[in-house]
Amino acid sequence: MPIRYLIIDDEPLAHRVLLKYAASLPVLQLAGQCYDAEQARAVLGQEPLDLVFLDIRMPGQTGLDLLRGLAYPPQVILATAHAEYALDGFECNVADYLLKPFSEARFLTAVQRAAGQLQAQEPAFILLKEGRGYHRLPHSAVFYLKGMGGYTRVFHEGGVLTAQGNLRSILSGCPSVFLRIHKSYAVHTAHVTKVAGSRLWAGGEALPIGEAYREMVYRALGLAT
């Protein structure tokens, strides 16, 4: 299963090193690059990600402050030149702590640790509330989600249900195989059968790809824009 990752670091050199090392692991798929906590917060608020490479000392808010403010943090590998923050990092349950400059071998070890934790926490089912009852759906049975204000329509192999909660809140309980493609739509990537221009097909339906999501969607699916 692909691991979608985000780089958060104010140094361009750090981005180049991480991208170079990540290129040796096809399982890693770049979801974005941010240079400060404010940028990162906006990206992390759009959709769930699997892994973040996070610097600590950045202009404005520190990486640790950003991490502490996340309600549902992804796996985090701290990558910093400052060893004195190691204890703070592990108190935030980070997967690993890379001290710059680090080798490719050390990078691979950190990713393996994060991947192991991801595998252990990956839910097989999604719990959805509809009316007074709950539905427990295998995530693999869900084709796509459509946000409708305070509710979300869930299109799955057995039909359609209307779950309580907006699209963002529903996605927070979904595994990373779900990809936000539009402000009102998210899809299970295993059910994507075709992508063309600003449309994507999943569950036999053509769905819109929002302009703001287009580059990220194509990148996540391994396609060239």
Write up what this structure looks like:
One of its GO terms (molecular function) is DNA binding. Keywords: Phosphoprotein. This is Response regulator transcription factor. The chain is α/β, with parallel strands linked by helices and 225 residues long. It has two domains: 3-121, Response regulator (Rossmann fold, 3-Layer(aba) Sandwich), CATH 3.40.50.2300; 125-220, OB fold (Dihydrolipoamide Acetyltransferase, E2P). Helix content is 27%, strand content 36%. The chain contains seven helices and 15 strands. It has helices spanning 12-22, 37-44, 63-68, 86-91, 104-121, 167-171, 214-220, and strands at residues 3-8, 28-34, 51-54, 75-80, 96-99, 125-130, 133-138, 142-148, 151-156, 159-164, 178-182, 185-188, 192-196, 199-202, 205-208. The strands form four sheets. The chain has a five-stranded parallel beta sheet with strand order 2-1-3-4-5. Strands 10-9-8-12-11 form a five-stranded antiparallel beta sheet. A three-stranded antiparallel beta sheet has the order 13-14-15, with no helix packed on it. A hairpin with a 2-residue loop joins strand 14 and strand 15 (205-208). The two termini are 22 Å apart. 38% of the residues are buried. The model has no long low-confidence stretch (mean pLDDT 90).
